[in-house]
């Protein structure tokens, strides 16, 4: 049976049942436990994202100055509600349409919203393929219903390497909230200190460390490779 990305039901593990075996292994350094599971952010780590592409899309279709659209765009509480799954896509697109003063249909708004998903990070699929089956492999993304649908279609081959993809809009919690990391760690079945988390956001990494996870700040794909090598993966 082919593996599933878990995007449609991210709380259910797609290839393994919840882990209960936590045998001790040699630590990395004097106080750090060797990671037993890997947890990847998606945007900026697995998938290249660029919000400017959304602004360009909407500007092209309305004739509006793109810089004005960018100025009006805010990642506000309504955005966070959408990423927690508290409001539907239709409501968030209506909010964006009013916020940025765009005369566009719902479909045109969603197409622009999805335009920020660019492509897989070069080299990441080979890394995930190598790790898959060799170490428990998971992803956790702050994302929303529209992007989940688009990513499932466009990046399914890469995402299928994860045992489960946890998304904020399904679990009801966003990074960097402490409860988001504790929720995911519990669902994975590993103590937080046994999880190595890769993210490009310092704010999210700070939240992960407060929850007890080990972290890697991803500024380029080379950071992923270096951290994996350092930890023996």
TrEMBL record:
<dbReference type="Pfam" id="PF00702">
    <property type="entry name" value="Hydrolase"/>
</dbReference>
<dbReference type="InterPro" id="IPR023214">
    <property type="entry name" value="HAD_sf"/>
</dbReference>
<protein>
    <submittedName>
        <fullName>HAD family phosphatase</fullName>
    </submittedName>
</protein>
<dbReference type="InterPro" id="IPR023198">
    <property type="entry name" value="PGP-like_dom2"/>
</dbReference>
<dbReference type="InterPro" id="IPR036412">
    <property type="entry name" value="HAD-like_sf"/>
</dbReference>
<feature type="region of interest" description="Disordered">
    <location>
        <begin position="1"/>
        <end position="30"/>
    </location>
</feature>
<dbReference type="InterPro" id="IPR006439">
    <property type="entry name" value="HAD-SF_hydro_IA"/>
</dbReference>
